Amino acid sequence: MTSLIQHSTTGPEADETDIDIDLVVDAPGSPNELADPVVLRDDPTPVRWLRRWRRAGRAEGRKLEWHPLRALATVAGLAAFWYWLPGAIAFIAMLTVLVFLHELGHFVVARRVGMRPTDFFVGFGPTIWARTTRSGLRYGVKVLPAGGFVKIPGMGPRDEVEASREQFTYRAASRRHRLMVILAGVAVNFALAVVLFAGFAATQPGVGPVEAAGTGLNQTAQVTTGTLEGLGNLLFGADDYARSVANGEVPENRMMSPIGGAQVAEGLLDTAPDRLLLLAGIFSASLALLNLLPLLPLDGGHAALVMVESVVARVKGKPSLRLDPNRFTPMAVVVLVALLSLSASAMYLDVLYPLGDALR
Predict the structure, then answer these.
(1) Domain layout of the chain by residue ranges
(2) pTM for the predicted model, two decimal places
(3) How far is Cα 299 from Cα 188, in angstroms, rounded to an integer?
(4) pLDDT-derived band of residue 215, with 50, 70 and 90 as boundaries?
């Protein structure tokens, strides 16, 4: 005798009811026709895997999220980049680690002083894998491996927070604690730069840590100076700067874009792989210096806002005074647009005039 058995699965693990139809064939010689059935499933293993993957792709908001198709797409993209442009992958990995450690500094100090970050991710874009803890922290990995971010409630100008969680926000913390959180990322990048310069010195016979640090700081100063000059030109002389870039005029000191960084890393992989430590140290120190600029939305802008708030509170005799971040939103937008424009112009120059020999 042959029969059909229907199985249905429902529960928190599924977004919809799954129905499996099994074909049951009676075992030969069995006294009871259905005592020992042989089950022939109509859905082979790969099909069941695809079903689970499809359900996983709709797992947004759960305590545990896993999106295998996004993970495969990311791995395939990175593998293609590694095959064609290994220097680009080396630079992306370096930049991701530097930004991750920068954000980790913010995260650790924020937790230590009583704030409760809600998001901590490596990368940007759609989520590949994420987990939500009992405290409400959601951490994981996203599709675009280019840095990372930490979200602390109350740090944005229009963050809305439940009344029961207001005491754990950035804006509810003391000025000292807010300043500690803001400067933590910069401190991590400076410390990491020192370690990387020392590591580079250890790989160079006859080169001491002081000399290596001097070389690294000199290169850091050039990169930072070029960025500041470009930012100043954009803010106060946008017409002249745009005209010079359009005419192909290359400033002596210019900002290095991710494309330029990948070009330099590509050249160093072929000629002097040990100098990648020097390159990483330069970018770590540059990231710290640029974040110290007293301009929102950079870390230095948030630190400056805390210090201005402290001065105004003392002058007015109101220790609990809080400045409204919404008032500074237009300035933050202008700075953000200027930085994006500067990055675009730097990419344009790096494509026309490669930087592959910059650190050789």
Answers:
(1) 2-42, 88-113+168-352
(2) 0.72
(3) 13
(4) low
